[in-house]
Amino acid sequence: MSRCLALIVSLMLLAMPPLAAFAADESARVQVADPYIELHTGPGRGYPVFHVSERGEWVVITLRRTTWYQVRTDKGIEGWVNQRQLVATLNEAGERVAIVGPGGDDYLNRRGDFGGGIGRFKGEPSTKLFGSWRVSDTLSLEGATGQVQGVFSGSSFWHVGLGVEPWSDRRLSPYFGIGLGKFRNFPNQSLVDATPVNVKMAQASLGLRYHLGARFIAKLDFSLYTAFLGDNRSAEYRAVNAGIGFFF
User: Fold this and answer.
1) Same domain for 130 and 10
2) Residue 217's closest CA among 178, 179, 170?
3) 118 lies in the same domain as 93
4) Which of 61, 107, 184, 190 sits in a 20 to 30 Å window from 42, CA-based?
């Protein structure tokens, strides 16, 4: 378990630095990083281009309408720029700005999520339901329950714990979590001398969360489960799970 936790922390520290997020109800002063951006007279491709701001110039984002942003240059010229031309802009600290598309404000302000998925638990097919509640931008309370249908036995488990998502403002965001719960195993009745198992369990996970759009997310995680069997004995199970959920 300790080796797994050390690996999770190491991988997260190697991740890229966070982007500075921009929400629609906030003004942001950004620097053009593309060769140029085109200012249209209105929020759409049908409106003509009337001005061009070149790389290195500063503009202030004042309004968003779907995938179009109203900007104002240092010379006071106002126009509309498509989101694609702003993805490489920089803020005054030199950080790349995460321009949030439709539904992005809701995603940044989400309080929790709920969903389900399928995967493999020690090579056997499994299903899992998951949910979380954010207590801060990077920390959440998490819970999950699952079932495993094996050839010689069936298993079920549940666990609750803490999840950490250091870069939760990204559309694709890594996360990790640890927790405690229960593990149960029920051997097939046809097996001789098979004993059911009902023990405490610890869990550690490393995964990726992706904002699909609207209120939907996709998750992929790798988990290590440790069942404490008693008499200083334990068993480890590795699992992978992919699922879809919604946030609120």
Assistant:
1) yes
2) 170
3) no
4) 107
